[in-house]
Amino acid sequence: MENLLRPLIVIGGSVLLTLVIGWTTDFLLRKADERRGGTSLWGELRRGRVPYQLVLFAALLRGSYDQARLLTEFREGVGQLLTLLLIGSAAWLAVRIAGAVVGASYTRYADAHTERDPARVRRVRTQVTLIMRVVTAVVGVMAVAAMLLTFPAMRAAGASLLASAGILGIVAGVAAQSTLSNLFAGLQIAFGDMVRIGDTVVVDGEWGTVEEITLTFLTVRTWDERRITMPVSYFTSKPFENWSRGTPQMTGTVFWQLDHSAPTALMRERLRDILRGCPAWDGRSCDLAVTDATPNTMEVRALVTAKDADDIWTVRVAVREQMLDWLVREHPYALPRVNTAEAVPAPGANGERPAAGGTPGPRRVVEPHRPPERG
User: Fold this and answer.
1) Confidence check: pLDDT of 139 > 50
2) Taking the complete model, does pTM exceed 0.70, yes or no?
3) For a surface tag, which of 95, 167, 219, 275 has the fewest beta carbons within 10 Å of its beta carbon?
4) Kind of pairing between the strands at 353-354 and 298-306
């Protein structure tokens, strides 16, 4: 009877005590979250209740397993397994606690600065993301190392491992040169404020928004919802356009190829009317000018402004579409066309032009080349 009750009491007591302590801790965190609604720390800490209960259960059972006298022939193996479970759950809990503290701090900072300085908030978000990835990697490596050191064979090999650490470090550094370069490039991006999550960038002719930054790669979401993934070392070794660098305000251009008779003065007035009806225009500036001319057409450019890259695209599209629609309806003569009229003769009698000596000579007309008619 004692052989049956002892394991039940030890294991059942460990489970019961784990549930009671876990429920009590969760209750206290929930009450703290209700009282202090200005921070999300207590709510974030509640997400760690599963690893917290695993740590409690593994610690209680590891300490009382010898008294249970259960599976005595496998006592060392079960004890080793409980130790590994304790180390793994403790590492999991440490990552959750660090994530809760960092996440709550970022949320509080973002709520206070999003409206005043959104670019700085995106920079802090990028740094927080990479810091959490570094913390997770370090805790994971330490947990694996602690698990390995629980085996007697690994402890015996510790001296030889330390003796060969220098050679192994050199070999690993050469073999993982690209990985290490991406790792340091990721840290440089995070703390050098080169590119941030949410920035609008142009990379290799592709326009998109930075969606994710890790220690080794960066993902850009294009306007047509494609994902471009590239190593972070690209952004430290090659030039790229960052439209969100500094202030997010932008100036955009719209070009038209029109006939020389296009009414540019009326187009300026029409441009102002279009922008007044466009919510994406920020009202800072607008202008229209003739920037180039060819024998057949002239180039008209409009300058418009908006608060960010997304809005400048909306403004440019609206101005281009509505201006063309207005020209088609009100001034169709301003659209480019093929000139088939005869050339205007130079001053002179009957279309004749003066000769070299001052006397008018006959005008020479060059007939256009016509393709042969097919029989």
Assistant:
1) yes
2) no
3) 167
4) unpaired
